[in-house]
Amino acid sequence: MSETGTDEDTLARAAELREQLAEANRQYYELDDPKLGDDEYDALLNELRALEAAEPELRDSESPTQKVGGRPLGRFEQVRHTEPMLSLANARGAEEFRAWEARLHNRLKSLDITPGELRFACEPKIDGLAMSLTYENGEFVRGATRGDGVIGEDVTHNLMTIDDIPKRIEIDDPPELLEVRGEVYYPRAAFKRLNEQRAEAGEPAFANPRNSAAGTIRQLDPEVARSRPLSIWCYGVGVQRGLDLASHSEELAWLKEHGFKVNDDIAVVETADKVVERCLWWEERRESLDYEIDGVVIKVDQRELWRELGVAGREPRWAVAWKFPPMTATTQLNQIVWNVGRTGHLVPFAMLEPVHVSGVTVSTATLHNEEDLERKDVRVGDEVVVTRAGDVIPQVVAPLIQRREGKRLRRAKPPKKCPSCGTPTVKAEDSVWTVCPNRRGCPGQQFQIVKHFVSRGAMDIEGFGEKQAHRFLSEGLIGDPADIYELTAERLMELDRIGETSAANMISEIERSRERPFGVVLFALGFPGIGFVNAQALAEHFGTIDALLEAEAADIEKVDGIGPILAAQVREEFHDDYNRDLIARLREQDLRFELEESERRIEGGPLEDKTFVLTGSLPELTREQATQMIKRAGGKVTGSVSKKTDYLVAGDSPGSKLAKAEEVGTTVLDEAGLLELLGDAAALPDRPAAPKGRA
Ligand code: IVH
Fold first, then answer.
1. Where are the beta strands (DSSP E) in 319-440?
2. Is the full-model pTM beyond 0.85?
3. Whose CA is nearest to atom 17 of ligand 1?
């Protein structure tokens, strides 16, 4: 026992937690290299909070529970925030949010405030970097990071390179002083490209968009930031003189009106039920957005209540962060196993101690390939950080090296023999992959080939999944995809547990798959380098399998999106004897090996080289029909309007594309206008089955 009664273990534990949290903060804020999963960080912080709440002796203004983040790095000028940049209390889900809201009402009652209707602004909680932008008499004079909430770093030189940050407020009487707060972020699509470029240049990849934003903002040379497309979402006003608006939502509207980027989907609602609804709405969209969000920030809209409610520790009482389940977690890696892929590549997988990640239990995760494995230095026995997003296979992000503590862990090497067929594996010098060279005889590869062939995006044979592929192959019913078309109901019924109905269903599904178009059949073959998009492009370009079988690399290179290396590889595949034999057997089974008349382009069609965008619903044609007709006539159909768009075909409820077309001066057509443009090309007899309501 210490003198004041707190036992030694508790003191030691608190000290240990503070140290771990300080180190985690340093990794996160200063090194942009987080080593702890969100869940682990939260668990440590909660444990420390609980200890501090129970033991007054432990309370300390220097504790990580009282501070926001890392101290400034010291390379930039320091900026003292006039009003501290606060943090937010968390609510994990509806129950915790409702408890927060109940506390809010109680507090208002005890302050003797009847606010009338409370209103809540529900905003995406952007996972980026908090920034303070100061405008004096309308001029952008200073931009600073949050730092520890009190002192941040002056990063004006980098923020000046961000187009989405107004450099001046274009009005006659700008407020004398205005501090705009927002979150700088790295758009996801651009982040992906950045990491691809870094990999090519042999530079280490950023772990996530947030780190790449932080890494960019912390550069001394603004040219780095200029070359990277950072953006910002503005979410509030800090200090100000001369703006004085009564509500947060009015401030946001003012910001938007004056050129600041404010999210269009911020909603102001009146009830807790509506807040819950809105949070679920955001959670559903989470993965389809071009910016990462880790929750929803709910703020009392009435600004006068902010003052009354005040701040507890580092968290204002007028706002709360509804946090989504963490996308990362920490767990132990028990084993690394190797699977053989469709093209013979050996793929490492991590077998994990089961752990919850974004609401799902994860026990296996991909390690991509051996190069990745080596670069990350993941070892059997490591504690690892795991992430999961949507349908994407869970991934191992990084090992927690500091947890190895004297444990002797070994690196995993790809096996010398194929785990499926035992053939000695090979690794070409210029490849990151070790492969099983037994492409024809390896049961593991055959399984992957069949599984891919029947899968949803390919031949789409319903009821024929991984299980069936495995069973039919191992019981010798099939050896490759062509054998599938020789199956009969009788043959299937010889298998245990397959009755008459399911056998008949399977056969009719197989029959139906013969109708799949040429481009899809090419994709289903599963040749290396021929993904869905390339398969469609090859089908459209060559039109028939015979043309493709004869094509030389130089011809293949002419296809949109196919470069010289891929072209040579594609030629190789179509000249391979085994592949040619497989194609011949599938042809005998009447699979489609050429474009249908309706899929073909008309040589020198009337829309040659014209680019179209479709929007809204057309009176007679479906979108697919219109697309097909335009393509046949030589035109291109793309998804969004730009200066390169020649025509926008607009139906009912056209939405924002119409406004954009008007802005950039694209010609707008209705359906009749399109048909007129198509002329004879629309009237051809093989035009896609008569449009709705037309003879
Ligand atoms: S309000 C006083 N609004 O979340 C309230 N913050 O955990 C704090 N953040 O430091 C700022 N999106 O970096 C607010 N719509 C939003 C936000 C947001 C992201 C970040 C910000 C803040 C942290 C608090």
1. 319-323, 328-340, 346-357, 360-366, 383-387, 395-399
2. no
3. 125
Three-class SS state of 452: helix
H/E stretch holding 582 reads helix 577-588
Q: How far is the CA of 88 from the centre of ligand 1 (A)?
A: 7
Amino acid at 178: L
Question: b or e along 237-247 (b: 16 or more beta carbons within 10 Å of the residue's beta carbon)?
Answer: bbebeebeeeb
Rama region for 218: left / alpha / beta (φ>0; ψ in -120 to 50; rest)? alpha
Residue nearest to atom 23 of ligand 1 (CA): 87
Contact 610, 574 (CB under 8 A): no
Q: How many CB atoms lie within 10 A of CB 441?
A: 11
d(CA 612, CA 355) in angstroms, rounded, equals 48
Distance 118 CA to ligand 1 centre (A): 21
The structure tokens listed for 125 are 């909680």
What does the alpha-carbon distance between residue 457 and residue 521 come to, in Å, rounded to a whole number?
A: 10
Q: How far is the CA of 175 from the centre of ligand 1 (A)?
A: 24
Q: What is the DSSP string of 609-623?
A: T-EEEEESB-SSS-H
What are the CA-CA distances from residue 111 to residues 104, 116, 119, 312 (Å)? 11, 14, 18, 15
User: Phi/psi zone of residue 377: left (φ > 0), alpha (ψ -120 to 50 degrees), beta?
Assistant: left
pLDDT in tens, 99-157: 999 999 999 998 888 767 899 999 999 999 999 999 999 999 999 999 888 889 999 99
DSSP-derived pairing of the beta strands 89-91 and 328-340: unpaired
Name the one residue in this structure whose structure tokens are 């870094």: 198
Q: Are 232 and 149 in contact (CB under 8 A)?
A: no
Mutate to test the pocket of ligand 1, among 85, 150, 235 (most ligand atoms within 8 A of CB): 235
Taking alpha carbons only, the member of 378, 441, 434 closest to residue 411 is 378
CB of 130 within 6 A of ligand 1: the answer is yes
**CB of 235 closer than 6 A to ligand 1?**
yes
Distance CA 593, CA 48 (A): 66
Q: Which of 326, 295, 400 is nearest to 38 (CA)?
A: 326
Residue 316 CA, ligand 1 centroid: distance in Å? 11
**Displacement of CA 71 from its chain's centroid (Å):** 30
* Catalytic position from the list 35, 67, 125, 323: 125
Nearest partner of 319 among 86, 655, 57, 563, judged by Cα: 86
Ligand 1 atom at minimal distance to the Cα of residue 146: 10
Report the percentage of the chain scoring pLDDT > 70: 93
Sign for the CA dihedral angle at 533, 534, 539, 541 comes to positive
Mutation pick for ligand 1 pocket among 126, 248, 264 (CB with most ligand atoms within 8 Å): 126
145 CB under 6 A from ligand 1?
Answer: no
Q: Catalogue the E-assigned strands of 219-373.
A: 231-241, 267-269, 293-300, 311-312, 315-316, 319-323, 328-340, 346-357, 360-366
3-state secondary structure 183-206: EEECCHHHHHHHHHHHHHCCCCCC
Sign of the C-alpha dihedral, residues 624, 629, 633, 637? negative
Least Cα distance to 459 among 554, 329, 592 occurs for 592
pLDDT in tens, 73-85: 557 888 999 999 9
- Within 8 A by CB and 6+ apart from 189, the residues are 290
125 is catalytic: yes
pLDDT digits 0-9 by tens, 324-377: 987 788 899 999 999 999 989 999 999 999 998 877 889 999 898 888 888 888
Question: How far is the C-alpha of 43 from the C-alpha of 36, rounded, in Å?
Answer: 11
* Centre of ligand 1 from the C-alpha of residue 86, in Å: 8
